[in-house]
Amino acid sequence: MSGSVERVLHSESELEAIAARLARHAVADLIIYLRGPLGAGKTTFARGFLRGLGYMDVVKSPTYTLVEPYSFESGLMCYHFDLYRLADPEELEFTGARDYFNASSICLIEWPEKAAGYLAKADIDCHLRHHPQGRKMMLTACSAKGEQLMLQAQPD
After folding, report:
1. What are the angstrom distances between the C-alpha of 38 and each of 52, 82, 84, 138?
2. Is the pTM of this model over 0.70?
3. pLDDT over 50 at 1, yes or no
4. What's the whole-number mean pLDDT along residues 15-33?
5. Is the pLDDT at 2 greater than 60, yes or no?
6. What contacts 91, CB < 8 A, 6 or more positions away?
7. 84-139 pLDDT tens trace
8. Cα 146 from Cα 136, distance rounded (Å)
């Protein structure tokens, strides 16, 4: 999974498994952008990622709350953002979201383009889209940390 990887996924469970594999190698201070049209699998990716971190409860889409926090015994925090309903990028600033981007957290951000200019740069950019056989996913490392994560998460 180094650099950039594109693949067709035939099921939600396949998407969740890839996200979980990334999560098992993830470290704090990580940002993952989740892009794609409605229903393409952004929340499914987030659910798989959170499962990979060990979260076993219900994973809610933060469409109306903008962000759902998940805490882990290790002290790690994972923040799942859904910015679909953001009318203006400046709204993100009013939520105090900058506080979530810190050295002890991972941020998963659906619809990052809605907050252009107000978000930190992604370490990994995940593009999902509909495909006749399921979904098409492209993962791109955007930083050395993202590149390292993708290398570590390669299937054996």
Report:
1. 23, 12, 9, 16
2. yes
3. no
4. 96
5. no
6. none
7. 998 888 888 877 888 899 999 999 999 999 998 889 999 999 999 999 999 999 99
8. 20
Q: Which amino acid, one-letter code, is at 120? A: A
Among 79, 137, 134, smallest CA distance to 110 is for: 79
Alpha-carbon distances of 65 from 28, 76, 81, 83, rounded to whole Å: 23, 21, 9, 9
Structure token pair of residue 47: 């659910």
Residues 122 and 130: their CA atoms lie apart, in Å, by: 22
- Provide the token pair at 144: 């050395």
CA–CA separation, 44 and 61 (whole Å):
9
What is the bridge-based pairing of β-strands 124-131 and 134-141? antiparallel
- 79's CB contacts (< 8 A; 6+ apart) are 67, 68, 69, 70, 100, 105, 106, 107, 108
- β-bridge partners, 124: 32, 141
Q: Which CATH class is domain 4-152?
A: alpha beta
Distance CA 49, CA 19 (A): 5
